[in-house]
Amino acid sequence: MQTQIITISENEEKLESLLYFSAEVIKNGGLVVFPTETVYGLGADATNASAAKRIYSAKGRPQDNPLIIHLSDPRDAEKYAFTSETYYKLYKAFMPGPLTVIMKSKDTVPKETRGGLDTVAVRCPENKIARTLIKLSGVPIAAPSANLSGSPSPTTARHVIDDMMGRVDVIIDGGKCDFGLESTIVKIEDDESLTLLRPGKITLDMLLSVVEDVKVADAVTSALKEGEKPLSPGMKYRHYAPKSPLVLLHGDAASAVEYIKREGYSNIGVITYNEDVEFFKSSLAGCKVLAFGNRNDEITQANNLFEILRDADRENFDMIYAPLPRKEGVGLALYNRLIRAAAHTIINL
Ligand code: TXA
Ligand code: MG
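That is the input. Now the predicted structure with threonylcarbamoyladenylate docked in place:
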């Protein structure tokens, strides 16, 4: 398949005319990769079952893992899901933005799009390119992250091109994604409480400021138990996995260096905070240090994490070490992505 790359800035005045062609591709059942404020999405007409199927094959994704449907106006959720007062509270507080809400689905969403479940995930992105594309297409756009299944979500068009060239009709290059980790996902339960299924930029505290009862699914911070049924199909797949093994170290830099020396691998990568770069470089001869932001700047760390994991993949390290994030605020999103990339290997120093 021939892939066309279109470069567009979000601040462009004539977004509609620049996106006209891509919207036609969506209307005709094609695949368009587009930027959002979280990560790039691999989009197709959510109401067209065969278009949705093409997403699964382009990504190499299991067909039982449902897709998020993206709307240009959060109120359009009425057409596809049974909404409630809680949905409108979330809408007022956080939409458009990096929040996905799972509700009971209406028949207007084909089974193929929702992986055979009776629920559907909806999200209205804030990114103007994304929203204009959805509006022009006249249909909701089903879109998973635009990476090959199993590799980190793409936060730049370069990442998308590495994974998706020849597999999609169009790639819209809209620059680096603003946040860099996928949206927060919540499910509205029958009693109107929320379950947090995937943490993101909309934090637990932000959700609690709007809805009283929010539970955090166990799988957000720990591994699924043998035979346990996941609340979200995506939880059961190994995600964001670098090719080399990754270990999370819980402790200060000095104890980390001691541990790494004892382990004795020669070709290693160390992901760390900017403040500790020099210390690791001078203490561990020959190791490659990947800085991902200042210690207390979780927004920058979130913005760099997936790019660093992709960089690490090209190095064929024997072992990669990274610090264990805290579980508060945006830290919970970093924690959730890193424990999965590390297959839950945490060393308490
Ligand atoms: O930021 C994001 O959410 C990005 C951008 C493109 O919008 N999209 C994204 O999609 O991350 P994806 O498919 O990579 O991750 C969506 C997750 C999957 O783990 C899937 O299992 C879960 O959401 N999911 C989707 N629909 C669901 C449903 N009805 N019930 C439970 N989980 C659902
Ligand atoms: Mg994904």
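The chain has a mean pLDDT of 94.
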